[in-house]
Amino acid sequence: MSLSLIARRYFSSSKSALNTLVFIESNASGATTPASLSAITAATQLGKPVTALVVGSNADSIAPQASKAGVSKVLVAKDAKYDHYLAEEVAPLVENIIKESGYTHFITPASSVGKSVLPRVAASLDVQPISDIVKIVNENTFVRPIYAGNALATVKSKDSIILASVRASAFAPVATSGSAAPIEEVSTVDTDNRTEFVSEELVSDGFDLSSSKIVVAGGRGLKNKATFDELMNPLASKLKAAIGASRAAVDSGFCDNSLQIGQTGKIIAPELYIGVGISGAIQHLAGMKDSKTIVAINKDPDAPIFNVADIGLVGDLNEVIPELTKKL
């Protein structure tokens, strides 16, 4: 199904050049996130120069990697107040750069950071953001999923400044082996922000769910947290995989909600996805159906997940998973 939506908002602009600004995030180890590299891939498809924006006290160490990702230049805002990407600090900076330099497009990953920053920038600029795009048709027309991914909407914007977030699983990360682009410092922006970062807790020291090539996910069929840990952890360890879960498993307290895969969780597209005791609700399928190879293990032969699985195994997970782990 394809729906066509047209947003009619008219603005005048003296800028004739089409230039794109991409927000770059880094992970705990100080490397550019795969989602940011996917956002650059999407931005380059607009066909015009792409500028990367790197912020935070460690921006100097992140900028060189971003500069080799096919961008025309990298802007650096080095300040500790941007370290944890508080939207109340980042959004005014982005707004200021867009206004001063005349960027016509702002692209960000559809991450928790992007989902927080993008609406604030849009509200300040009085434009309509386009979220979670999976395809770029041209400079003002995009495709995004709706109805839990069961339909695709083609959205055309007539805003003079287009703001969009990119679903990382829909665009391959750009390589960081190109020639280094110039790096420029930009001034920070003073705000009256009263929000401050307090602390963070690392839930898992394993592989990152959003970027791992292999994901093993557990569902309600695992019955309880003890069984979830007992079966999923050894399997993930053998496969060097990230652990994920369905919403039912998260709501039942089997694992932390940061591991939830689905429409309201993380959207993933690993090389291999193994679903254990997951029935395959629409909400969950929306988060993993783009996986290259889908393996489903469930005792119910009529479970919906078998409809999207490349390989299906009907059996008792309490017997299948230990045997599978042993053979691996």
TrEMBL record:
One Pfam family recorded for the sequence: ETF
Matches recorded under SMART domains: ETF
The keyword Flavoprotein belongs to this UniProt entry's keyword annotation: yes
Cofactor(s) needed by this chain: FAD
Superkingdom to which the source organism belongs: Eukaryota
Domain Electron transfer flavoprotein alpha/beta-subunit N-terminal span(s) in chain numbering: 20-201
Gene Ontology terms: cellular component: mitochondrial matrix
Family: Belongs to the ETF alpha-subunit/FixB family.
Name this polypeptide is given: Probable electron transfer flavoprotein subunit alpha
Organism of origin: Spathaspora passalidarum (strain NRRL Y-27907 / 11-Y1)
Organism ancestry: Eukaryota, Fungi, Dikarya, Ascomycota, Saccharomycotina
